[in-house]
Design a protein that fits this description.
The complex is a heterodimer of chains A (about 240) and B (about 300). Chain A is an alpha/beta fold. In chain A, about 15% of the residues lie in helices and about 35% in strands. In chain A, the strands form four sheets. A six-stranded mixed sheet of chain A has the order 11-10-9-12-13-16, sandwiched between helices. In chain A, strands 5-6-2-1-7 form a five-stranded antiparallel sheet. The radius of gyration of chain A is 17 Å and the shape is globular. Chain A starts with a strand and ends with a helix. The relative contact order of chain A is 0.15. Chain B has nine helices and 16 strands. In chain B, strand 12 and strand 13 form a beta hairpin. In chain B, helix 4 runs parallel beside helix 5, helix 6 packs parallel to helix 7 and helix 7 packs across helix 9. Classes of the chains: A alpha/beta (about 240), B alpha/beta (about 300). Chains A and B meet through loops of A and strand 5, strand 6 and helix 8 of B. The structure holds flavin-adenine dinucleotide, flavin mononucleotide and FE2/S2 (inorganic) cluster (FES). Flavin mononucleotide sits at the interface of chains B and A. The site of FE2/S2 (inorganic) cluster has 12 residues of chain A, from loops.
Chain lengths: ~240, ~300
């Protein structure tokens, strides 16, 4: 059980929720399964997977888009309410001592913030070039821009992938709509790391509901992922 | 802990009557980080097929009101991997091991049972009901004659306690249960998933590539409870009840309807501790009601 410290709208349909009381706040690229039912109710039944936007000590911050019942319920939660969550789950990103290119699209931007922040902390003299794509309204631009040695390029309404200069680094991280990640992987001449999405029931690797096909056979997004090598996922 | 919950069925002694349902608990490893697996009465492992399977393509999970539809399609590593690797891992969990076996043909069932007969398992659960696999599966479980013949054939091949898992999609589930009993089943478990459907109205298409999918969770409980009641009142072998159990009250209802033990599936997804809570609740109930053993309430309704 965690307690909600803050749950605020940061753009239309996009919310940022900070919770406290998490025993393990996880690493960049991991996620939590958030309970969206009241304790004695079985509807909505399943927990919702939401990535770590940022975390420290016993607090975790999520950034989420309202798309259906579960996220609508999350958006209506108030400061002081309790939130039942399971996690941290999944493998998360590995940080490398290299100049990196980070490409996010839509709500897929959320898990890339902790990635960029931790990378800046660990490898301060390395360069980070962040490309963010939005459909209509920007969010989190200020947060990314405040990171040291980090250049932020963004696009509203078009294809941010058209703006990427792959000579700016030696490694690409990307998260966003599948067609965008596919395009990034295709354009990228360097190692590309992707964070995937799938519908989940258990979130811990037991139900095989979130399986995706990879070049190495079936993989569970919740347990073996959500982070994979682009070459592993987009092989066809 | 007292032994008011100790449950003897089919010649096997379980710590308590609460078992993890097949397909919802892997082979126990994944959840051992999130709940005390050793408290469970048993674990029914992921449904096996002789040579394993990659499962179904497309969306595999879809939520409905207090329910869940799944189209996993029996993704599993196959009987050999289970016998060589998973069994030993499960044995360390200090709970009863149930191997759940499905099949595409009589020959597959025969080879699977032969391999599992020498494996370190406590109970062999025969899944004659998975609605997801296009071939076989369905037909054995929906027809009393086919079910009876299958059980008779497999009975001769193993001394392991044989628990036959029934499908609610049979036109007459009681007749199938009786046919299993008459042909040597030691017990029956029910219900497997109902057949459901979802449509993505925006895309004007069925959500699942297979169109229909297995429906489980709290929403199915009244149907499951009715079927357990009917079957339990028609056979003498033990009945293991399941379908939508989420709480101690639900578990008590199934036992009162005639289930000697119960399985919990979908509930674990939204609360990994659901089974441990149910076990604690059953123990409290037995003590409050001064029962010597929880089995005293089995079939009282
Ligand atoms: C590993 C992972 C990390 C994610 N991180 C974030 C994040 O940081 N911020 C964010 O806004 N969203 C994130 N998502 C997507 C988020 O899980 C869905 O938007 C959310 O579950 C929708 O729930 P709902 O009840 O509002 O929608 P509904 O459509 O009503 O949900 C119905 C069911 O479908 C599932 N579902 C619907 N859309 C998705 C989807 N895109 N991915 C997975 N399951 C889905 C729901 O979980 C639920 O079980 C993530 C998904 C995954 C798999
Ligand atoms: C994701 C999922 C996978 C399942 N896989 C199997 C399986 O492999 N073999 C089997 O006999 N039953 C399988 N089942 C059925 C369950 O064991 C159980 O019979 C059913 O879900 C009803 O119980 P519940 O409502 O508590 O989940 C599966 C159910 C779910 C939800
Ligand atoms: S959600 Fe159950 S295995 Fe990934």
């Amino acid at each position: 059980m965690a307690v909600i410290l803050e749950n605020k709208k940061i753009a239309s349909g996009i919310f940022m929720m900070k919770v406290q009381g998490v025993s393990d706040c996880g690493k960049e690229g991991q996620f939590f399964m958030l309970s969206v039912n009241s304790p004695l109710s079985t509807d909505p039944l399943l927990k919702r997977p939401i990535s770590i936007y940022d975390s420290e000590g016993d607090t975790v911050t999520f950034v989420y888009r309202v798309v259906g019942r579960g996220t609508e319920i999350l958006a209506n939660m108030k400061e002081g309410d309790t939130l039942d969550l399971l996690g941290p789950l999944g493998n998360g990103f590995t940080l490398y001592d290299e100049d990196v290119i980070i490409i996010g699209g839509g709500i897929g931007i959320a898990p890339l913030y902790k990635l960029a922040r931790e990378h800046a902390l660990k490898f301060p003299d390395k360069k980070r070039t962040v490309y963010l794509g939005f459909t209509d309204e920007t969010f989190l631009l200020g947060e990314f821009s405040a990171l040291s040695n980090t250049e932020v390029v963004y696009d509203v309404g078009g294809f941010v992938t058209d703006k990427v200069d792959f000579s700016k680094g030696t490694l690409v991280y990307t998260c966003g709509p599948e067609p965008m990640m596919r395009a990034v992987h295709k354009l990228s001449p360097i190692k590309t790391i992707v964070s995937t999405e799938s519908r989940m029931a258990c979130g811990v690797g037991a139900c095989l509901g979130c399986t995706i096909k990879t070049i190495n056979g079936n993989r569970r997004v919740c347990k073996d992922g959500p982070v994979f090598l682009g070459d592993e996922v987009f092989y066809e | 802990m007292s032994n008011v919950l100790e449950t003897k069925i089919m010649g096997v002694t379980l710590k308590n009557p609460v078992i993890a349902a097949s397909g919802t608990f892997g082979f126990g490893e994944e959840y051992s980080e999130y709940t005390d697996v050793s408290r469970l009465g048993g674990i029914s492992g992921k449904g096996l097929t002789l040579n394993g399977s990659k499962g179904n393509d497309g969306i595999r999970i879809y939520e409905s009101a207090s329910g869940l539809m799944n189209s996993i399609g029996l993704e599993n590593p196959g009987v050999e991997v289970f016998v060589k690797e998973k069994c030993a891992v499960m044995r360390k969990m200090n709970t009863a091991i149930i191997a759940n076996l499905g099949g595409h043909s009589l020959e597959d069932y025969i080879s699977g049972v032969e391999m599992l007969d020498s494996a370190d398992i406590d109970i062999l659960e025969l899944n004659i009901s998975c609605p997801n696999v296009k071939k076989g599966g369905m037909s054995f479980g929906t027809d009393p004659k086919f079910a009876g013949e299958l059980v008779a054939r497999l009975r001769k091949l193993t001394t392991k306690p044989l628990l036959v898992k029934l499908t609610p999609n049979a036109p007459d589930i009681v007749a199938v249960a009786k046919a299993c009993e008459d042909n040597g089943a030691d017990g029956v478990s029910l219900i497997n998933t109902l057949l459901g459907m979802a449509i993505d109205v925006k895309r004007k298409k069925a959500v699942f590539n297979n169109v229909y999918a297995g429906f489980s969770g709290p929403a199915v409980m009244p149907v499951a409870l009715r079927m357990v009641h009917q079957v339990a009142h028609s056979v003498k072998i033990p009945v293991v009840g399941m379908g939508g159990i989420t709480s101690t009250e639900d578990a008590l209802a199934f036992m009162m309807a005639g289930a000697s033990a119960i399985q919990v599936g979908t509930a674990t997804f939204y609360d990994p501790d659901a089974m441990v809570k149910i076990i604690q609740g059953l123990e409290d109930y037995a003590i409050e009601n001064k029962l010597n053993n929880i089995s005293e309430i089995v079939g009282i309704v």
